[in-house]
Design a protein that fits this description.
- The protein contains four helices and four strands.
- Residues 1-23 have low confidence and may be disordered.
- It has helices spanning 11-18, 80-93, 121-125, 135-149, and strands at residues 29-33, 36-40, 51-52, 98-99.
- Strands 1-2 form a two-stranded antiparallel ribbon.
- It is α+β, with helices and mostly antiparallel strands and 150 residues long.
- 28% of the residues lie in helices and 9% in strands.
Length: 150
């Protein structure tokens, strides 16, 4: 991997991908080499993640309001499957290989790369009102992260 030099990953990405056991082939994960963390694919090869955040079908037709419009995939596509096929093809054509954080579960399998879960642990814990460095908070962080990636 020493010839692979993408931008270094942030701490949140390292936390997310390090939760996946490295011994399991097929999982995207991080590897530590030369003092830096690198994203690697399921075969252990360097992987440059190019993703979109907030890939979602939006509101349901029942909640869609023309007076205050938002995105509603089912107002334009006959089914969730049709939306997923069209969105996956569009993402691949644009060169994206990762579904990013804050995306809906329905977007999980749109591209062959990883589905990145947004770990908004601080929000879930009540920061800044809770002490994020407390022993209780650290245990809760581990619990919440495990639930998020299960």
């Amino acid at each position: 991997m020493s010839s692979f030099r993408p931008a270094r990953l942030g701490a949140a990405a390292c936390l997310l991908f390090s939760l996946v056991p490295p011994a399991h082939a097929g999982y995207f994960r991080v590897a530590h080499e030369g003092g830096a963390w690198w994203l690697v694919d399921g075969a252990g090869k360097p992987f440059l993640s190019k993703g979109l955040d907030v890939v979602s079908m939006g509101e349901t037709p029942a909640k869609f309001k023309a007076s205050n419009p938002g995105y509603c995939a089912l107002c334009r596509y006959p089914s969730a499957e049709a939306w997923a096929q069209a969105t996956g093809k569009r993402m691949a054509a644009w060169g994206f290989n990762t579904v990013g954080g804050h995306s809906g579960k329905e977007a999980e399998r749109l591209v062959p790369g990883p589905f990145a879960v947004a770990l908004t642990l601080g929000i879930w814990m009540g920061v800044p009102w809770a002490d994020p460095a407390s022993k209780e908070a650290k245990a809760k962080y581990a619990e919440l992260a495990g639930e998020a990636v299960a």
